[in-house]
Amino acid sequence: MAVLGSIREVFGIDRLRALAAVAAHGSIAQAARALHMTASGVSQQLAKLEREAGHALLEPDGRSVRLTHAGRILAGHADLLLTQLAAAQGDLADLGQEVLGPLRIGGVGSAVRTLLPDALAALTADHPRLRPTVVDGESVDLMPRLIHGELDLLLIESWAGRPVPAPEGVTLRTLVSEDVHVALSERHPLSDRRTVDLADLAGTAWACCPPGTAPHEALVQALRSRGVEPDIRYLLAEHATQLALVARNLTASLVPAMSARPAPPGVRLLATRPALRREIRAAWLTRAESPPVRACVAAVEAHCRSTGEGPPAEGGAPAPAVP
Lesser CB count within 10 Å: N end or C end of the chain? Predict the structure, then answer.
């Protein structure tokens, strides 16, 4: 224990985590993917660690690298330390199995707005010593914050055809599965349909979330699969803002069911051909699962059961158009 304590004092935890990842995955590139970092970021961490250790920790191995003898020794200690830290976090969180203390939540806007308010109200009423905090954002930005320990629980989206990856050490649980609709102005020539083939929307201007986000990638993939090159003119993070432009017949938008409530006057929601779906998933670090995380996931699941969040069963009636 004394050795581990002294290692922790001398070397930063993030740098030891980078070394352990290279040892586990065999390359800086693979370690970077596992840690949701850039390869240059991992290299910088390892360069600092080498200076602190006073030994070369990596050596060239063809086009890749391998650990030196000193690197293997330090990586072994890093594994022990990281395991000990995870166990300590679990022991403290499980103390008495009480749901108390901070709970740092990140989520996509529609999930935060639709799923969290009632769930958190019930949760904090039952556990007044719990201190939840919430930030919204896109899955691509929130996942690294979970991996690095800045957040405890995420509510992220996963679109059919562009499923959210399950990083190593992260538990994913599906909370909601829902239809995705095309939002058109009631003045659009195709707005009287109940279902629209995406191929029929060639030449249509689109509003969408910024590049790199799951909704943007899902829209591009869905249109190109029907032979349509996307004409995305409005990059807007919020579906509510996209729908405001749809209502003025400026654009079309792909909108998940929970994001379309309430839709502004003048907007109609059409089922798509092929059908598109989105899931909202809870995500947390498996090693850092705690009573607050478990209680919050359970509260959101209870909310979903009580409100029937999500689409009708397969084969059910299509979503009604919004006048």
Answer: N
